[in-house]
């Protein structure tokens, strides 16, 4: 059942980007909206057209749509092929749907992380001065939570082959990066998460059919040791 604005005249917008934290933010927004008995909207923005989304992006979008239906969210808003600055997009959506509160997540692998930085936050506050912002610190999932979605981790290696970065499960003869691969439950392909340590810090990248999805997420200086 859809909500109508209650006596507090509130409406909440949750901004999500690809990653494991999207569902958490949506459920957090739903909890607050239920307490206030007000409408809840979900927004995702991508600079690429919908028909060019890879398997991982499409999977996240489908999950969020299904969750929005399950929680009876007022509307799931997907703006693809969007070239405008993110603050302009948020402002337009907030005005169109009369949003009073916006929830965004602080995530190490998300565009929305920029909102937590002072300079961008100041720009956003000037662009959308009529809205209250909630910057939610979203923790990385624990190992137990990972096992709910992924199989037990196995030793694996990240190697470079031509222009791709692949996951291998036997130690290659040439230089590689060693880590742990968590395979998604219920898939016949090598889809999941590769976790590894680099410069004494833990990192992770998403793997689809054995390939690193977004090479840009690899830490700076990481690629130089990888050779054929």
Helix content: 25-40%
User: What coarse outline follows from CA principal-axis ratios?
Assistant: elongated
| The CATH architecture of the largest domain | 3-Layer(aba) Sandwich
Distance between the termini: 57 Å
* Element order: H for helix, E for strand: EHEHEHEHEHEEEEEE
- Average pLDDT reading: 79
Beta strand count: 11
With strands numbered from the N-terminus, the spatial order across the biggest sheet is 7-6-8-9-10-11
Cα-based radius of gyration, to the nearest Å: 20 Å
What profile does the largest beta sheet have? 6 strands, antiparallel
**What is the CATH H-level superfamily of the largest domain?**
HUPs
- Counting DSSP H or I runs of 4 or more residues, the number of helices is 5
How many distinct domains? 2
SS class = alpha/beta
How is this structure best described in words?
This protein is an alpha/beta fold and 228 residues long. The chain has two domains: 12-137, HUPs (Rossmann fold, 3-Layer(aba) Sandwich), CATH 3.40.50; 144-217, no CATH class. 26% of the residues lie in helices and 28% in strands. The protein is elongated, with a radius of gyration of 20 Å. The termini are far apart. The model has no long low-confidence stretch (mean pLDDT 79).
Topology, element by element:
Blueprint: E1 12-15, H1 22-36, E2 40-45, H2 55-70, E3 75-79, H3 86-96, E4 101-106, H4 118-127, E5 132-137, H5 143-149, E6 154-161, E7 164-168, E8 177-183, E9 192-198, E10 201-208, E11 211-212
Parallel strand pairs: 1-2, 1-4, 2-3, 4-5
Antiparallel strand pairs: 6-7, 6-8, 8-9, 9-10, 10-11
GO molecular function: kinase activity
Organism: Lysinibacillus contaminans
Keywords: Kinase, Transferase
């Amino acid at each position: 059942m859809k909500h109508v604005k209650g006596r507090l005249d509130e409406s909440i917008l949750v901004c999500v980007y690809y990653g494991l934290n999207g569902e958490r933010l949506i459920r957090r927004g739903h909890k607050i909206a239920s307490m206030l008995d007000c409408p809840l909207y979900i927004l995702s923005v991508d600079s690429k057209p919908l028909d060019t989304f890879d398997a991982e992006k499409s999977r996240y979008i489908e999950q969020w749509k299904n969750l929005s239906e399950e929680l009876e969210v007022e509307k799931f808003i997907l703006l693809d092929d969007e070239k405008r600055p993110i603050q302009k997009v948020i402002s337009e959506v907030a005005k169109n749907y009369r949003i009073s509160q916006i929830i965004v997540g602080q995530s190490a692998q998300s565009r929305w992380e920029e909102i937590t930085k002072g300079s961008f936050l100041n720009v956003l506050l000037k662009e959308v001065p009529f809205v209250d912002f909630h910057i939610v610190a979203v923790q990385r999932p624990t190992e137990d939570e990972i096992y709910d979605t992924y199989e037990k981790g196995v030793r694996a290696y990240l190697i470079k082959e031509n222009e791709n970065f692949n996951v291998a499960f036997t130690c290659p003869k040439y230089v590689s990066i060693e880590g742990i691969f968590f395979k998604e439950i219920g898939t016949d392909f090598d889809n999941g998460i590769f976790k590894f340590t680099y410069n004494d810090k833990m990192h992770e990248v998403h793997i689809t059919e054995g390939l690193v999805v977004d090479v840009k997420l690899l830490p700076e200086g990481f690629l130089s040791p990888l050779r054929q």
